[in-house]
């Protein structure tokens, strides 16, 4: 293995050329832009420059939306692909096509909106199913579940554990509150579901009996009519929700052809986010910017050729020994040794200037 020689780059450029220059550097892929926080604390610099503004947060939001849309398509419009299928080749002008990017962003927004509708639909279905399940034990009762007590009669819906013998409950009620009646709606493995009525004058005595058997009141918030009527209504509502779900799912499947454009947009946004991260390391005046970085020596000639096409001032120089600890390390190996780079990077790269 060999460590590639590096050169320090210092550059002053014009704000008007900044984006084009960074696109050119990004295409070269040989410059690592460095932080300059130390200069901001230097009074000589702080009075002249300010940190570069960035649109990174907006691009990160767009990338998040695009990746979310792709995950939705993975579920509702999946595409079979070979594990060893070659990566598609993309032209540079296609990767950074702004019109195509805007169209993909619109499609991502539409897909995510459908996904939000599906989540709401699933929530609504769950609520309807849960309500139906709650009401099923009461379907045999032919009185509205909103029936209230009156001035002369106490009315309550409630439950008693299924292990309780209801005949014993009725006998105790007859002894202590003979002006009362207990109606059984249904029984399952855990509970008796009951409607209880009694004269107001015997309410306290009757409730004492019921509580001794574990009676607990049940209320039905938001329910009107009988349990049977409500279950029928909710069953129709559930059928409508299921139809809506099928319609949304079908609409999402129509976006399967948008996958390549969304993948390309995700790649483009990833590149732009990296560019914005680099731009955040710049120092600006009203009309110029200053940047520092490192470039690998073998690519120096190509970099110089690129920089000379812009109105900028720059210098390239070898690092001093004092700078070695901060110089990035790039390895140059043969084909066999290159395969071991990943293992080397997992532990620690050698320091610049040392023997690898």
Radius of gyration: 37 Å
Global outline? elongated
Strand content: 15-25%
Q: State mean pLDDT (0 to 100 scale).
A: 88
Unreliable spans: none
Separation of the first and last Cα atoms? 6 Å
State the helix count. 13
Order of helices and strands: EEHEHHEHHHEHEEHEHHEEHEEHH
The quaternary structure here is: single chain
Structural category: alpha+beta
Helical percentage: 40-55%
| Largest β sheet strand count, sense and barrel closure | 6 strands, antiparallel
Tally of DSSP β-strands = 12
Describe the structure.
The longest helix has 38 residues, at 98-135. The model has no long low-confidence stretch (mean pLDDT 88). With 356 residues, the protein is α+β, with helices and mostly antiparallel strands. It has helices spanning 18-28, 37-40, 43-46, 56-76, 92-95, 98-135, 166-176, 203-212, 227-253, 259-279, 300-307, 335-338, 341-347; strands spanning 2-3, 6-14, 31-33, 50-51, 153-161, 180-187, 191-199, 216-217, 283-284, 288-296, 312-317, 331-332. α1 packs antiparallel against α11 (300-307). Strands 2, 3, 4, 9, 10 and 11 form a six-stranded antiparallel β-sheet that branches. Strands 6-7-5-8 form a four-stranded antiparallel β-sheet, covered by helices on one side. A hairpin with a 3-residue loop joins β9 and β10. It contains 13 helices and twelve strands.
Q: Helices, strands, pairings?
A:
Layout: E1 2-3, E2 6-14, H1 18-28, E3 31-33, H2 37-40, H3 43-46, E4 50-51, H4 56-76, H5 92-95, H6 98-135, E5 153-161, H7 166-176, E6 180-187, E7 191-199, H8 203-212, E8 216-217, H9 227-253, H10 259-279, E9 283-284, E10 288-296, H11 300-307, E11 312-317, E12 331-332, H12 335-338, H13 341-347
């Amino acid at each position: 293995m060999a460590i590639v020689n590096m050169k320090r780059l210092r550059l002053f450029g014009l704000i008007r050329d900044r984006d084009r220059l960074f696109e050119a550097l990004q295409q070269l892929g040989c410059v690592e832009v460095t932080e300059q926080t130390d200069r901001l604390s230097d009074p000589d610099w702080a009075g002249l420059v300010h940190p570069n503004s960035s649109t990174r947060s907006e691009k990160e939001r767009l990338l998040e939306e695009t990746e979310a849309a792709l995950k939705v398509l993975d579920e509702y419009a999946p595409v079979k692909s070979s594990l060893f299928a070659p990566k598609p080749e993309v032209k540079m002008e296609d990767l950074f096509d702004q019109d195509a990017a805007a169209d993909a962003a619109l499609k991502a927004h539409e897909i995510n909106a459908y996904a939000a509708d599906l989540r709401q639909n699933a929530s609504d279905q769950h609520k309807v199913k849960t309500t139906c399940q709650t009401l099923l034990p009461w379907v045999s009762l032919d009185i509205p579940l909103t029936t209230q007590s009156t001035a002369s009669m106490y009315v309550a819906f409630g439950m008693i554990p299924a292990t309780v013998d209801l005949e014993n409950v009725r006998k105790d009620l007859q002894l202590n509150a003979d002006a009362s009646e207990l109606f059984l709606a249904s029984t399952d493995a855990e509970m008796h579901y009951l409607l209880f009525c009694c004269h107001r004058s015997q309410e306290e005595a009757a409730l004492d009996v019921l509580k001794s058997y574990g009676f607990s009141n049940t209320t039905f918030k938001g329910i009107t009519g009988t349990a049977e009527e409500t279950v029928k209504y909710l069953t129709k509502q559930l059928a409508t929700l299921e139809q809506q779900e099928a319609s949304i799912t079908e609409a999402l499947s129509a976006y399967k052809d948008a996958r390549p454009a969304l993948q390309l947009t995700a790649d483009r946004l990833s590149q732009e986010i990296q560019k914005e991260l680099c731009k955040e390391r710049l120092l600006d005046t009203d009309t110029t910017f200053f940047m520092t970085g490192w470039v690998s020596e073998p690519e120096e000639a190509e970099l110089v050729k690129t920089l000379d096409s812009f109105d900028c001032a720059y210098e390239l120089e070898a690092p001093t020994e004092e700078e070695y600890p901060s110089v990035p390390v790039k390895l140059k190996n043969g084909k066999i040794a290159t395969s071991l780079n990943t293992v080397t990077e997992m532990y620690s790269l050698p320091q610049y200037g040392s023997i690898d």
